[in-house]
Write a structure and sequence with these properties.
Chain C: The chain crosses the membrane at residues 12-33, 104-125, 137-158, 204-222, 266-288, 308-334. The structure holds 3 protein chains of 3 kinds. Chain A has helices at 48-56, 82-88, 110-122, 126-139, 145-150, 158-170, 188-205, 216-222, 240-245, 250-258, 297-301; strands at residues 4-17, 20-33, 37-41, 63-72, 75-76, 93-96, 176-180, 208-213, 225-230, 233-239, 307-310, 313-315. Chain A is an alpha/beta fold. Chain B is mostly helical. The chains are: A alpha/beta, B mainly alpha, C mainly alpha. Chains B and C meet through helix 5, helix 6, helix 9, helix 10 and helix 11 of B and helix 1, helix 6, helix 7, helix 10 and helix 12 of C.
Chain lengths: 322, 293, 340
């Protein structure tokens, strides 16, 4: 347990909207070990981004923590005051987001923004910050760091910008990096390159990576462990190869079934029948119950607990006992 | 649709500013429409009396806003003035829309050469500060209510033309228009069913909220003497009528001006709220308890 | 930061085009629109000979494009007609009134913009609180008040009733004579300082403060509203959230980053704001008898002095176009995406 650096406990978050409350996550619990890379997988609305944002302390203003805690060491990140939070934001925990252009300020050069991050977090002088910025830009595979530092965000391409974002996020050598769908907006080639980059950085910097994606292929490539989420709860998690080759939860099974296979002749694309539940009400019972073809009465009435069926593997389904 | 309206009122209730604006605007419309029928001294309001014994009376129960140099009750005059302001507001904005929207539509939809030429033309008009063109036009066309409306509308239409042009251009490139085209819909249907409603909604909203500014500008023209003429009780004109006697009877200028302020205030408050409501991102933050972490 | 020669040239061409457009439009208004332009030009009290002379002067018997040619030529040569009210050339009258208006407008506009932006920032940072509502109401009130009404009220309260401040003109004539003040640039505040003449300086300020304050309320309200709106907008942008997540302190994020992003569109709107200030200046000058272009125009309107009216309209439009060009240049300097 001394290897564990982050403990998410019973995290329940809602969003206040003019149309009502959206229950984004309900009772999410998991650990992150040092240097571990975890992939948080699920469809839109599964709550995966919310979990990631909560850890990165980047939740939107209308999000409300109803319950739970995120423990980094013995500090609860959710209950920090403004000035204390700064000690961890950027320094210990950092993040890379989905849209590389939108997350950079269009009116300032890359250099200005990078050096500000370094100076604020590490107390470096401007020259030292510049040097370090160049160093990390090279680390992420950008060949002309000086030119990049002088450029404005709109002057660079998507792939380059995402590398810049990654450079900024990792330049403070954080212990945890949350990556919220970082490759979704990129073309396939850039995607592959960025994934490779993440693997390198993981090794180089001994970084714990929380990689959020809806793409199972990406998840399998980048992660040691995979956590599958549905309707705001964790339905299954475990080592990535195990889960993807021998899925336990009916949802995971269905998900993997949906992936088209080139070498198999299929007439119609498979999908899971039904729709995800309405998140404006708290859910009684298993959230997957009405789409599950193995559901029974108990599934609809009581919520299944997330139990460890095999060391390192957890499922939330009444099919399995401890 | 219903959920949109419900959401609108939920947010409005939370926002006092918007509520106040809403009430003021509704009051303006109501008073403007029914005012000729609720006057207690109609002859005073329409300006045809000359009551020597009632000249320059300060505000009292009998004359809440006092009387002017002709002994006319100011309260009645101001109430009737609401009707003229309403006529002007609707007239100016309406006429400006009628002129500007088609031009903007044509320019936006056909794009290319024609679009650029039309917009350059519009730009020429926009080179004049607001109201200046109206002053020049009013001076040329002559005074009076109708000319004032025409002058103001002629100086306003470029705004709407430009707004519509930008909107149409944005909407034209939206994925749902491409989708409609792919589905085989003809240009006409696309234009009326998809492009138009989406492009025009912000324009219509902007125009409704612009009515406050129309009242303000018309009052300015009247004050300078080139808008509405006496004895029409338009608010701006009433203020200028009270100017000469300001030292002996401050109320003649004060209350009509106050009416202008309250009306325009209502529209402006609503405009502020509408702006934030229209942007879906900002709408979310209206519900935030602790703003900006 | 260099703006690039290409960009500057482009803007300059645009300005010339706009000036041309202004002249064409005013030509249409003065010559094409009216049925008998010479009547308007000669004034309401003109004799038959004067009307005939006007007809010749305006070349009304010639085809339109010839008239246009004479019109444009006349403007370039500085022949803007003669004001029959003052019996002096319109251009001279305008130019001599210009410094007074400029001084008033610049003074008022500076106060308006600085205070407006500050208020907008405060309101945005304290959104949905009492402070925000107060500032919002105040700035919206400022943008809802008819300038002429406010000017009258202020004049009545501070000048006529309380007697604290003078009610007309830019400076006390007797003071000018006794201290030997004479204008150099036409900007009395600067001139008096240049001559070390403090009594006149104070006196000019006393005369200017009321009209300037009244004039500043509208643009102040506009700036505050816009700044608040833009700040609120910007504080939601993804790059602000990412900056905070990456550990940049909130103060830096707000005052260095968000502010610049918010101010850029506010600066773009300053041109229009300035336009409103110019129009407001007409009313204020009229009421405070401030000897500027506004007063010139207002008096011309009251006496149907058509050449003077149109002359004033043109000079104001031209000035406005130049201001807009400057504003656009500043905007492009701040926002590099505009420099394409």
């Amino acid at each position: 347990m001394k290897n564990t650096i982050l403990q998410v406990r019973d995290l329940s978050i809602v969003y206040d909207t003019p149309f009502g409350m959206t229950h984004a996550t309900a009772g999410v619990t998991f650990d992150v070990k040092r240097g571990e890379s975890i992939s948080l997988v699920g469809e839109s609305g599964s709550g995966k981004s919310t979990v990631g944002l909560a850890i990165a302390m980047a939740l939107p203003p209308n999000a409300r923590i109803v319950n739970g805690s995120i423990l980094y060491g013995d500090v609860d990140l959710l209950r920090l005051e403004e000035d204390e939070r700064r000690r961890y934001s950027g320094r210990e925990i950092s993040a890379v987001f989905q849209d590389p252009l939108a997350t950079l300020n269009p009116l300032f050069t890359i250099g200005e923004q990078m050096t500000d991050v370094l100076m604020s977090n590490l107390g470096l002088s401007k020259e030292e910050a510049f040097k370090r910025a160049k160093e990390f830009l090279k680390k992420v595979g950008l060949t002309d760091p000086e030119r990049i530092l002088r450029s404005f965000p709109h002057e660079l391409s998507g792939g380059m910008l995402q590398r810049v974002n990654i450079a900024i996020a990792t330049s403070t050598k954080p212990k945890i990096l949350v990556a919220d769908e970082p490759t979704t907006m990129l073309d396939v080639i850039s995607q592959a390159q960025i994934l490779e980059l993440f693997e390198e950085l993981k090794r180089d910097l001994d970084l714990a990576l929380l990689f959020i994606t809806h793409n199972l292929g990406v998840a399998s490539k980048i992660a040691d462990r995979i956590i599958v989420m549905y309707a705001g709860t964790i339905v299954e998690d475990g080592p990535v190869d195990d889960v993807l080759s021998k899925p336990l939860h009916p949802y995971t099974v269905g998900l993997l079934d949906c992936v088209p296979r080139i070498h198999v002749k299929e007439k119609r694309l498979k999908s899971i029948p039904g729709f995800p539940p309405d998140l404006s009400r708290p859910i009684n019972g298993c959230p997957f119950a009405d789409r599950c073809n193995e559901a029974s009465d108990v599934c609809r009435k009581t919520k299944p607990e997330l139990i460890e069926v095999v060391p390192g593997r957890r499922v939330a389904c009444f099919k399995y006992k401890r | 649709m219903m959920s949109e309206v419900k959401a609108l009122f939920t947010l409005m209730r939370k926002n006092i500013v918007a509520m106040v604006g809403f009430i003021l605007v509704v009051a303006f419309f109501v008073i403007g429409i029914i005012s000729p029928y609720i006057l207690t001294r109609p002859e005073d309001a329409w300006g045809s009396t000359f009551n020597v014994s009632a000249r320059y009376l300060p505000p009292s129960w009998e004359h809440p806003f006092g009387t002017d140099e002709f002994g006319r009750d100011m309260f009645n005059r101001v109430i009737l003035g609401a009707r003229f302001s309403l006529i002007i507001a609707v007239g100016v904005v309406g006429l400006a829309l009628v002129l500007g929207v088609p031009i903007g539509l044509i320019a936006g939809y056909s794009g290319g050469r024609l679009g650029t030429i039309l917009m350059r033309l519009t730009d020429m008009f926009l080179a004049f500060p607001p109201l200046l063109l109206a002053i020049a036009l009013a001076a040329t066309l002559g005074r009076g209510l109708a000319n004032a409306i025409i002058a103001l509308a002629l100086s306003w239409w470029p705004w709407y033309a430009r707004l519509v042009y930008v909107q149409v251009n944005t909407v034209k490139n939206m994925p749902y228009v491409d989708a409609a085209r792919v589905l085989g819909l003809d240009s006409f249907t696309i234009m009326f069913r998809h492009v138009l409603p989406n492009a025009l909604t912000p324009v219509v909203i902007q125009a409704s909220l612009d009515m406050g500014s129309a009242v303000l500008e018309a009052a300015g023209l009247s004050f300078l003497g080139i808008g509405v003429q006496p004895p029409t009780p338009e608010w701006g004109l009433l203020v200028s009528e009270g100017w000469q006697s300001i030292n002996v009877a401050w109320w003649i200028s004060f209350f009509p001006g106050l009416a202008i302020v309250t009306t325009v205030l209502g529209f402006n408050l609503l405009a502020e709220f509408a702006r934030e409501f229209m942007d879906p991102r900002l709408r979310i933050t209206m519900m935030a308890k602790r703003w900006f972490k | 930061m260099p703006l690039g020669r290409e960009y500057l040239l482009k803007r300059l061409f645009h300005l010339i085009f706009v000036v041309f457009g202004v002249l064409i439009i005013t030509f249409i208004i003065t010559r094409v629109l009216p049925a008998r332009p010479e009547l308007l030009w000669a004034g309401p009290h003109a004799t038959i000979e004067q009307i005939e002379r006007a007809r010749k002067e305006l070349h009304l018997d010639e085809p339109i494009y010839v008239q246009l040619g004479y019109y444009l030529w006349g403007f370039i040569r500085g022949n803007w007609g003669v004001s029959w009210r003052t019996k002096t050339p319109v251009l001279n009258g305008l130019l001599s009134a210009l410094p007074a208006t400029l001084e008033l407008i610049i003074f008022a506009f500076s106060i308006a913009t600085v205070l407006g932006v500050l208020l907008g920032i405060v309101a945005a940072l304290r959104r949905n609180t009492m402070v925000d509502s107060v500032i919002q109401i105040f700035s919206v009130l400022g943008a809802s008040m008819p300038v002429f009404w406010l000017a009258l009220i202020m004049l009545y309260v501070f000048s006529n009733t309380l007697g604290w401040l003078p009610s007309s003109n830019r400076v006390d004539e007797t003071l000018v004579i006794s201290t030997g003040f004479h204008p150099i640039t036409g900007f009395y505040l600067i001139d008096s300082l240049m001559q070390g003449n403090f009594p006149v300086f104070i006196d000019v300020l006393r005369h200017m403060i009321l009209p300037a304050l009244v004039l500043s309320l509208y643009p102040m309200g506009l700036s505050a509203r816009m700044t608040r709106a833009m700040m609120v907008d910007v504080l939601h942008e993804p790059f602000i959230r990412s900056a905070l997540t990456w550990g940049i302190p909130k103060k830096l994020v707000v005052y260095k980053y968000a502010l610049k992003n918010a101010v850029a569109p506010v600066i773009a709107s300053l041109g229009l704001s300035f336009g409103y200030t110019i129009i407001g200046a007409f009313m204020v000058e009229l009421i405070f008898v401030w000897p500027g272009i506004g007063l010139y125009l207002a008096m011309s309107l009251l006496s149907f002095d058509y050449p003077a009216i149109m002359g004033a309209v043109i000079i104001v439009a031209l000035f406005y176009s130049v201001i807009n060009l400057i504003v656009d240049l500043i905007h492009a300097w701040i926002d590099p995406r505009l420099r394409l």
